[in-house]
Structure formats: C-alpha cells, structure tokens
User: Fold this.
Amino acid sequence: MKIVITSLFVDDQAKAQSFYHYVLGFEPKQDVPMGQHRWLTFTSPNDPHGVELLLEPNVHPAAKAYQAAIKADGIAAASFEVRDIQAEYERLCKAGVEFTTPPSECGPMTVAVFDDTCGNLIRIAQRH
Assistant:
C-alpha cells in the first residue's frame, strides 16, 4: 500500500490553484470538472509522479467547521519539506505570503507556518 493522493480543503479552488501553482511552485497534475467543482491535483516539481495534493472544496459543513477550527487553533493543515527553509521563507515573503511563525527550531527540524489564503495554515520544514 502507498499514498497516492492526499487532500486539503480549500475555500476557493480557483484561488487555491493560482496560489499553489504560481506562488508555491507545485505543478498541475489533474484538472477534471465535477459539476460546479473540480478534481484538482498538484505534484511537486521534484517528483511529478509522486503523491498528488488534491485541493478539495470545503463545501460540506463538517469540512468548513474542521478547517476553521484547526486554523483558529494555529494548527497546520499540511506540511511540506523544503531543502533550505530560510531561502524559501525569504522567497515566499517577497511573494507576499504572510507567515504566522517564522523559521524556528523544533527538535530535528526547522519549521515555519504561513497562511495559504484559502483557509489553511501550512507548515514548511527542513530536516537537520
């Protein structure tokens, strides 16, 4: 068994598509119309055949409540590994990304947390 798709609730798929592609640099993989929403996935440019990130609309009331609750509590909805967290932090800050936590040591990792503008906090992490 292996993980092939993981999902992240977003409050606006078009806005999320732009942010995850143009700001974060993920590559579009699938974009399939599904009624008023889409099956919208992305992969890492470093692993185009790897795990896909599904940007799933938060239209179910439980999804909206979950997304709002974990964000209010400061919990990241996803975590992405980076090679150089300081460089990535600076690049994203220049792109207008708002961080709630700047790069900070956390055991064997350095982590930072930002708002994805689509209802989530996202963690980036660099292993030591």
User: Anything to note?
Assistant: The chain has one domain: 5-127. The domain at 5-127 is CATH 3.10.180.10 (2,3-Dihydroxybiphenyl 1,2-Dioxygenase; domain 1).
